[in-house]
Amino acid sequence: MDHRYALLGLLLLAGCSLAPREAGEERERMEAAGAIYEAPAPQRLVADLPPDPQWRDVLRHAFLSNGDLEAAYFAWRAAIERIDIAAGYPNTNINVGFEYLFSGGNLTGWDRSSLAVGFDPMQNLSFPTKVLAAGRVATEDARAAGARFAAAKFALQRQVLSAWLDYALLAERSRIQRDQLALRRLGAAAAAARVRGGMPQEDLLMADVERGHAEHMQLELDAALAAARARLNALAGRAADAPLPPPDLPAPRPLPDDATLLAVGTRDNPELAALARDSASRADALDLARQQYFPDINPFVGLTGSVEQVAGMAITLATTIPQIRAGIREARATLRGSEALARQGGLDRDAAFVAALLALRSSERQLALLEAHISPAAAQAAASAERAYAAGSGDLATWLAGQAALLDLRLTIAETRVARERQVAEIEALAGVDAERLAATADGAAPSPAAAAPTDRADTASRAGAGS
After folding, report:
1. How many helices (H) and strands (E) does the chain have?
2. For 24-46, what is each residue's pLDDT tens digit?
3. Fewer beta carbons below 10 Å: N end or C end of the chain?
């Protein structure tokens, strides 16, 4: 055998990867999901919000600009790169040695030279199945990181929707408070007129107190509205003082019936998908720990000019048996722990899903009662008080009380509507599917797993950012 071929084989072996097929698929998903993040943040051309943005506009901007989501993407990319670190073969460097013999004899310079090529003796060449197992561990860890990136999208979506609903509710409260303040000022003016007509001043003092309290509440709401705008801008990756007009309450988003929602459940929840990948990774890690019994083999070739050619191998036998056994026990315990986390995580999220669904239906029932029964009755009572006051058979205080009751009811309806929309955001985060896709299931369309593919809104945002 020509040992030059053996030397060539050792050199060609460098640069291989024993990563599983799923590693390439995961890399493709990662690159498709994070194209917008490849350019540094200052160099990205992300269009700002329109003059009158809606929550979808803010959410799209958040998907493109939020730093926490970007960090989750790069954690995914780092996990992908660790696959080649774990699955690279050979896992050690090639060591080249040269010697020259200074001695007598009728030998040429070439025959006095010795060349040896092998692997670095400081790190054994692992048995290939060990590298395959390490590659599987790293691949499952990367797939778990991908699922956590999907979970980060839903977490950001829930945060943005919650902040938007807070902002919208505060804006509605501010509008209602302005109407309340107008009523209090009207009441104070009427009380002042009565005092000028000879009535006692107690009514005027009380009216002034109520007016002052209403003005104080208005100032508090204005400050809270500015703070809510700053928080929402921060989530969207914008400056805290960036303009963002106070919105109206968003229209209710439709959802299918309870049977359809319960059938969807939390099967596509990306956090559960990440826990499942963690368990798969720990199972592969247990297999890797068991393979530590396998010997490592370090081949080498060498020659001394034209005098001598040699090939051989060094076999490293496993003698650290207590350490290997402890490593297997540790891997088994870690696997059992990850399985327990995945099992409990499923139970917790199923319970949270049911609780969110119950809260959603409760809000819908309350909203139906308020809008169908209480609101018409309150409007009728206020209208009756207004007619009586106009006819001179009623007093101003009764009319003011009726108008204030209508404003309080308007605020209660707004709070109930917002509570319902919060539950919608909670359900879509737990289901791992957008509300729009959940509504489409009522027409027979099956939602796609969010852990395997980004949401429609996130996809649209990524494409928009990549094309900017």
Report:
1. 13, 6
2. 999 999 999 988 888 887 777 78
3. N
What single-letter DSSP state applies at residue 448? P
DSSP string, 285-340: HHHHHHGGGSPEEEEEEEEETTTEEEEEEEEE----HHHHHHHHHHHHHHHHHHHH
The amino acid present at 465, given as its one-letter code, is G
Between residues 75 and 392, the one the model is more confident about? 75
Residues 271-292: what's their mean pLDDT? 94
The stretch 262-288 carries a mean pLDDT of 92
Q: What is the DSSP letter of 113?
A: E
Q: How far apart are CA 174 and CA 167, in angstroms?
A: 10
What's the pLDDT at 104? 62
Mean pLDDT, rounded, for 74-101: 88
Element (H, E) at 16: strand 16-17
pLDDT at 443: 60
All residues at 6 or more sequence positions from 363 whose CB lies less than 8 Å from its CB, including other chains: 416, 419, 420, 423
Please tell me the number of Cα atoms within 13 Å of 55 on its side-chain side: 22
CB half-sphere exposure, 180, CA atoms < 13 A:
24
Scanning the structure block, which residue is given the tokens 């919608």?
Answer: 424
Residue from 436, 432, 392 nearest 148 by CA: 432
Q: Residues 371, 372, 375, 376: is their CA dihedral positive or negative?
A: positive
116 phi, psi to nearest 5 deg: -130, 135
Cα 458 to Cα 444: distance, rounded to the nearest angstrom: 23
